[in-house]
Write a structure and sequence with these properties.
The chain has 264 residues and is an alpha+beta fold. It has 8 helices and 15 strands. It folds into 2 domains: 137 residues, Fructose-1,6-Bisphosphatase, Chain A, domain 1, CATH 3.30.540; 111 residues, D-Maltodextrin-Binding Protein, domain 2. The strands form 3 sheets. An 8-stranded mixed beta sheet has the order 4-3-5-6-7-8-9-10, sandwiched between helices. It has a 5-stranded mixed beta sheet with strand order 12-11-13-15-14, with helices on both faces.
Length: 264
Amino acid sequence: MATASPNLAVMIAAARKAGRRLVRDFGEVENLQVSRKGPGDFVSNADRKAEETLREELMRARPAYGWLGEETGEAAGTDGLNRWIVDPLDGTTNFLHGLPHWAISIALERKGELTAGVIFDPVKDEIFVAEKGGGAYLNDRRLRVSGRRDMSEMLFATGVPFMGSANLPRTLTDLAHLMPRCAGVRRLGSASLDLAYVAAGRYDGFWERGINAWDMAAGVLIVREAGGIVRDIDADDADPLETGAVMAANAEVADSLQALLRRG
């Protein structure tokens, strides 16, 4: 992109700093000491250190802003207007298994509206960024969602619940409705990168239920700024950041995809 705003520049610098440390830890993944946080959801020392780095960098630059982080939770800001929404390591299970598909996600929200987003994949050195009204970019290349019109040629992504999740039956039903009609469905284990890939035209659409605001906030803005549609899956007037049920797609297939996912 031409010139990043001061806020976006802070976000990019913070993501790159945390990313360097995560890459080092990823190289030593077998030696990481991990604790189990919940079914199928593991938190590594790398995850915690990454959030500490991000919080230190972001809050040093903007000490009055609020905070919502996966590991450290929520804290109100003194300005009452702005809030960072941060996932320091989206794709933790991939990370812990040595799979090079994980990312750092940072979003900035002002008065409840997403204004900037950064998704950084340090292993591939791909950084997806967007600012409201300014378009979306991958490593300075302008992004546009795919222009495919025929669902039979389209590739979709989702997250398949695990370890007894209540959302598993619904997801299997979604797959049964969609897979006979499309070119394929991928499950790569990082919602932020799934959204970034929709913005880049690598996927034609993505959906998932039961995810958190920090998993999707940056990606929601990046998809929209790349010309895509982002909605709550089941309710027309709902905010997916609040419901945790998100669907993103190009404009050609958004209505058809949503109709299939609502069949239940």
